[in-house]
Amino acid sequence: MAAKTAVVAIGGNSLIKDKFHQSVRDQYIAAKETCDHLVSMVSDGWRLAVVHGNGPQVGFIMRRSELSAHELHEVPMDACGADTQGALGYALQQNFQNEFRRFKIEANAVTVVTQMEVDGADPAFGNPSKPIGSFMEEEKAKERAEKDGWAVKEDSGRGWRRVVPSPRPLRIVEESAIRRLLDDGFVVICAGGGGIPVRKDADGLLEGVAAVIDKDLAAALLATRLGADLFVISTAVEQVALNYGKPDQRWLDSLSLSEAKRLLAEGKHFAAGSMAPKIQAVVEYLERGGKEALITSPEALERAMAGETGTWIRP
For the whole model, what pTM was predicted? Predict the structure, then answer.
């Protein structure tokens, strides 16, 4: 019987627990805890492609770049994405390899630095909305806008920040390599941070762009392209809830695709910056022929796979 394929998208809480545990060592330890939970799926025979977030890590690199700008060149966003894919991929693949050795599992892990093609005419480029980097005084922000062509906005009364587009992912450039590695039995860590955004120039050649791709939408596209049997979004909560944090909060064991679409369309059940994009990613995966999806926390993954918790969404 052929092994089933799962694409697992792990969120920021899987790599940075809180503001007091942000060092490289802290992130390595958090990655180990996440791998501990995922290893059970490999042991059960699943082929895994793992997609991770990278928002805070990109912010750290950009901050270091800003602070050292008087001595060194600044690091462009696409290079920041590549840097984090390598560093976080290293932490995840080494922890996977150590866990495989500890549990005597015949498997290995590898990281693929992944480019994600976007449309240069995507409307997002005309409406940059994703805040990145440090807070600035208004004068400094407008200076960078004038000097470097940045789009800048005031952010919730906390200061000014650079904002960049968040275009939709269209094509996974390294898809064939990811497929071959999965076929050869590797756990593949790929499309980190949603992938490095690239677009075609006038000659059809790829070039990096300053943008941020939603990690869950990228993972949904990967799950679709791989024909994955399961799409897992690992996040901070064990289950999806309606009216989250309110007196009438209700946890959801399961949802149908039509129910998920209706709740999403009503626009009041899921927070725009947290659960809504996850539900949207699941909807897109299922609408393109996906079989089933699961949203749960890393700690609850084993129980969720056994049907004891988590929120399952099916066609």
Answer: 0.93
Query: Is there a contact between 136 and 102 (Cβ–Cβ < 8 Å)?
Result: no
DSSP 8-state code for residue 121: T
Q: Are 17 and 26 in contact (CB under 8 A)?
A: yes
Q: Which residues are catalytic?
A: 12-13, 130, 215, 278
Phi, psi (5° rounding) for residue 122? -55, 135
**Dihedral over Cα of 264, 268, 271, 272: its sign:** positive
Q: Is residue 86 part of a domain?
A: yes
- 21/109 same-domain check: yes
Question: What pLDDT was estimated at residue 152?
Answer: 92
Same domain, yes or no: 93 and 143: no
Reported as a single tens digit per residue, the pLDDT across 181-218 is 999 999 999 999 999 999 999 999 999 999 999 999 99
Residues 6 or more apart whose Cβ sits within 8 Å of residue 2? none
Cα 104 to Cα 178: distance, rounded to the nearest angstrom: 24
List the domain range (segments joined by +) for residue 81: 5-118+170-314
Residue 201 maps to which CATH number? 3.40.1160.10
